[in-house]
Amino acid sequence: MTDAPLPDAAIGWVARVEASVRGECARDAPMAARTSIRVGGPADLLVRPEDPADLVALLSACRARDVPLLVLGGGANLLVADAGIRGVVVRLPIDFGEESEDGERLVLSGGAPVNRLVQRAQAAGLVGCEFAAGVPGTLGGAAAMNAGTAIGEMKDVVEAVEVATPEGLRFVPRDELGFAYRTCRLPPRAVVTRVAFRLRRGDVAASRAAMEADMAHRRRTQPLGWPTWGSTFRNPPGDHAGRLIEAAGLKGHREVNAMWSDVHANFVVNLGGATARDCLALIRLARTRVRDLFGVELELEVRLAGAFAPDEHP
């Protein structure tokens, strides 16, 4: 997405938004270190709300002033523009919201790392979330994009998500979330504050072995030792984006300091000092070449955020 510059009349919005919340606020907050690919310019204002009521106040203040707002999870599936992000970036603390456990149901913080689900499930003797082992980012972000691997995805275990909107907090049941491949339908301006999971009792040792095997496979087949956002494109029906990019001769192709990985061709890696412009040049090249050679239109899985120049768009 592209953020239009705020109008002159909006000057002063930063101080007014800061005054509306009790949590931590940071102006001109660097974003590169907050994304897994380590790319991007600063955000006008980064806010870490103190509690759910504070988050609702923030969302209401942003809507009242027409201030753009981006929810930042773990930054694992995000490319931030070199010029940064106009408006507010909100990031939930790790232990945001009350967590609970009731039989086979776990309710966990949306700001917690995905691995907390695995740890809590193992401790409670529950299975079914093996795919989540090693998945980067936060539970809120993983639910919002229906994150997963070859052995499962969030829709398999999510019972409901609690969301904050300018109107308040509410749980949205699974059947209203419209889960699809790397997609979840959330209410407008909603932030996932907690996620309720439904698991099952089972063989914890076998579950742990399945997780270790899946993680070992990913370590062999993905460039996990490099800064990367993960999969760049969604897999088209009946095929794999990585196969198409490799068949197009782009595996290992480099644009300045960014490269299509020579381990998995659907991963862009930062070789050191890469810019968003470098990354977007790779994305444009892959889309054009795959379209010309195979007639397939690759669809982005990575999210774009910030003030991109017109000539930067993929």
Task: Describe this protein's structure.
The chain has 314 residues and is of the alpha+beta class. It has three domains: 8-90, 2-Layer Sandwich (Uridine Diphospho-n-acetylenolpyruvylglucosamine Reductase, domain 2), CATH 3.30.43.10; 100-206, Uridine Diphospho-n-acetylenolpyruvylglucosamine Reductase, domain 3 (2-Layer Sandwich); 225-312, Uridine Diphospho-n-acetylenolpyruvylglucosamine Reductase, domain 1 (Alpha-Beta Complex), CATH 3.90.78.10. Helix content is 26%, strand content 25%. It has seven helices and 19 strands. The protein has helices at residues 13-20, 52-64, 115-124, 139-144, 204-221, 241-247, 276-294; strands at residues 24-29, 43-48, 69-71, 78-80, 85-90, 100-102, 105-109, 126-127, 148-149, 152-153, 158-165, 168-173, 191-198, 200-201, 228-231, 254-255, 258-260, 267-270, 303-305. Strands 6-7-13-11-12 form a five-stranded antiparallel beta sheet. A four-stranded mixed beta sheet has the order 1-2-5-3, with helices on one face. A hairpin with a 2-residue loop joins strand 9 (148-149) and strand 10 (152-153). The protein is globular, with a radius of gyration of 20 Å.
Salient structural properties:
Uridine Diphospho-n-acetylenolpyruvylglucosamine Reductase, domain 2; Uridine Diphospho-n-acetylenolpyruvylglucosamine Reductase, domain 3; alpha+beta; 26% helix; 25% strand; 5-stranded antiparallel sheet; globular; Uridine Diphospho-n-acetylenolpyruvylglucosamine Reductase, domain 1; 314 residues; 7 helices
